[in-house]
Structures are given as structure tokens and as C-alpha cells.
User: What shape does this take?
Amino acid sequence: MPIPVVGLIGCGHIGRFHSRNLRGAIRSGVVEARYVAVCDRDRSRAEAFAAITGAELVTDTAEELLEYPGLNCVYICTETAEHPALVEAAAARGLHIFCEKPLARTLDEVDAMAAAVDRAGVINQVGLVLRYSPVLTVLAELISAPGLGPLLTAHLRDDQFFPVRGHYNSTWRGSFERAGGGTLIEHSIHDVDVFRWLFGEIRAVRCHTREATPGHPGIEDVALVTFQHEGGHQTTLSSVWHSLDDRPSTRFLEVFFEGGYFATDHDFLGPIRYQGRSGPLQELSADEVFERYVALAGLTPGEAELARQGMLEDVAFLQAVRDGRPAFPDFSTARAAHAVVDACYRSAREFREILVGSFA
Assistant: This one.
């Protein structure tokens, strides 16, 4: 297979994250690739990227990047409203696609995007980065241990300052037309994906939302959700955007089984607390969690070092392109999370429980 030849569209906050990861992956020698083109509607931002990356093409026109000779994959890191057209254009040209989350503002748009990549037969991945979280991967293993009894419930509190300022500086996230919603779709699409992964398919939801911050109609900054899972258990999510500018983005997750308890307030690197049917609360340290993750994921030493720096999702995409195999999490996985979010918004509008997708 030819090596990945990458262009990146969108030189904002998330574009910087992936640009760093691409450069780190290439420098490490873990995967061979070329990072050749950058695009942003603000040409000065694209030029700043090129000064760091050494990109051959700098442009403010997405079409010019997509037509660049030799390009075979593209990162789409723009605002959500722009994803559908860019995915359609890239797929039509046979380019492999990494698209940031959320895929689109509406489920109908997501369906069209998933159909486009399927028709084109291109490798596709979505930026649901928590699928590469050491903490959550190890937690998934711990909660699958025999002897815990039935899962009783789990709760996740996800809070973040409203990302229209600060280091995010994403003013478009305050516009319903550009973002499609607030904290639930923009931030907690990650959480919905994690709940499906850890606790099983979600068959019904009951959701309440609130717009507490003035000046941003349609952008909820509170979402409270109860998920009914296929296994019969219920879990809950509290998703909050606040104005505490010096508070970092945090996730606190606790899980109760009939004979076990697990908790973490880290969503990537950090300790996990646990307790069995008897005995005191214990803790796996952050180092122990990471060592266990490396073993579970079967990482090489080079991959492990990139994983510690949060670069593994990008390494995985480049490796999938190199090997000509499906990437993960793909558009189909993201589509399932979007179906749950869509049901949540319907529940909030209609003040009732809503069945999800195939369960309806």
C-alpha cells in the first residue's frame, strides 16, 4: 500500500491538536507518512501551520487542497456545519477521511456522510478520542471481571467551560446554525459513545436540557440524561458548560455493580479507584493503569510513548491507511452515538422518553 499523504483542513484548536499528533507520529518513525498540505479560510493561520509543518501547499480553498497531486487522505477539523460538504467532496475523490466529531448537526446529515464513505469505499475514522483512553480501556477490562454481579448503575458528570473563549476560542460553538446544539452534541457525543462501549446499547433515553447562558439560542449548556440500556440497567449523564474559566475540562465517572464499585475522575491518564464485596477502597495508580493499557492494547514501545502523549488515535488512522484496513472508531460507530443524541434532543423537546433507532 502507498504511504499516507495527508492534508489538513481547519487550523483552529482541534486542528492544532491533530497537526501536533501527525508530526509526532511521523518523527517517531512508528508509521511512515507525509504531511503535505494545510488549509484554513484564514490564510494567515494556514501559513502559521505551514511554517511549523513544512507543508508544500498552503491554501484558503478546500477544493485546492483536495485536488493536490498525490494526496490520499484528509483531516477535516473545521466547524461542524462544514463537515458534510467536505466529507462528500473528499469521498468523491477517493480520499481516506479523518473527520472530527460531531460528524454533523443532524442525524440526516450524518446518514448522508456515512453513505458517502461507504459508496466510495474509503477508510474513515472519527475523532472520538476516548476510545483511545488508557483509563477507560482499563476500566472496561475491570468491569468485565466475573463475580461482580449485575450492573446496577453508572453516572458520569462532564463539565467544561463554554468553549467560545479561552484556549478553545471557538466562537462558532455559540451558534446553533454552525454547531447544531450545545454541550450534548458538541462535547458529550464523546460520553454517549463511551456509555455504549462500556455499558451496552442504549434503547431509550429521557433528557432535559437548559439554556442558561444568554445570547446563544438553541445552545444548551445543561443536559441531564437517563439512558435505558439493552441489558435492562439504567445509567445517567450530567453534561454542563459553565463560566469557570480556570477550571479544566473534567469527567467524573462512577460505576456500581451488585458486588463492586469503580470510579475515576480522569478521562485519559490517571488512577482508578475500586472496591469489592468486602475490604477497603483501593486504587490502581496512573502508572499501573498505563502499564495495563499498554499490555491490553498490545503496543510497541514506540506506540506506547505516543499513547502517553495522546497521539495514538492519529497513529491508528495512519496505520489503517497504510495497511488498507478499516479504521476505528469509524463513521458507523459515530452514527450510533448521533442516533442517541438525536433521541435525547427529541426527548427534551417532547418531555417524554424516546426509543432509539432500531428500538423504536
